[in-house]
């Protein structure tokens, strides 16, 4: 079992504390459990939102179509051929 040892403190208005207590009681959890759950859920949403790039559907469709179209890369093809012929590469 993981031991919880870190703490967070906050100063609240009486009305804020009352709202938290009412919501925690409504969900049948302690004030602490309610606050931690709410804070972690919000943190995960914020982190997720900053790691997602949103683009219009038409832009995404154009991007996927462009990626599906093969392009010529002669220098890459030559480099791959040289690598295959080099003795340092094991052939299977």
Write a structural description.
63% of the residues lie in helices and 0% in strands. By secondary structure, the chain is an all-alpha fold. The protein has a domain at 11-68. Helix 1 packs across helix 2 (31-50). The longest helix is centred in the middle third of the chain and has 20 residues, at 31-50. The mean pLDDT is 90.
Topology:
Blueprint: H1 14-27, H2 31-50, H3 57-68, H4 74-85
Helix pairs in contact: 1-2
Strand fraction equals under 5%
Supply Rg: 28 Å
Elements, N to C (H/E): HHHH
- Largest sheet, strands/sense/barrel: none
Low-confidence stretches: none
Structural class: mainly alpha
Indicate the overall shape. Answer: elongated
Q: Report the helical percentage.
A: 55-70%
Report how far the terminal alpha carbons are from each other.
Answer: 48 Å
Number of helices: 4
Average pLDDT confidence is 90
The tally of strands reads 0
Using brief descriptors, characterize the structure shown:
92 residues, single chain
What's this entry about, in short?
With about 90 residues, this protein is an all-alpha fold.
């Amino acid at each position: 079992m993981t031991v919880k040892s870190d703490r967070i403190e906050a100063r609240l208005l009486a009305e804020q504390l009352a709202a938290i207590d009412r919501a925690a009681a409504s969900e049948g959890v302690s004030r602490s459990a309610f606050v931690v759950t709410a804070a972690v859920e919000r943190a995960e949403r914020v982190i997720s939102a900053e790691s997602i790039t949103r683009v219009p559907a038409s832009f995404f469709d154009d991007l996927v179509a462009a990626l599906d179209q093969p392009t010529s890369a002669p220098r890459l093809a030559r480099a791959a051929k040289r690598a295959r012929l080099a003795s340092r590469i094991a052939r299977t």
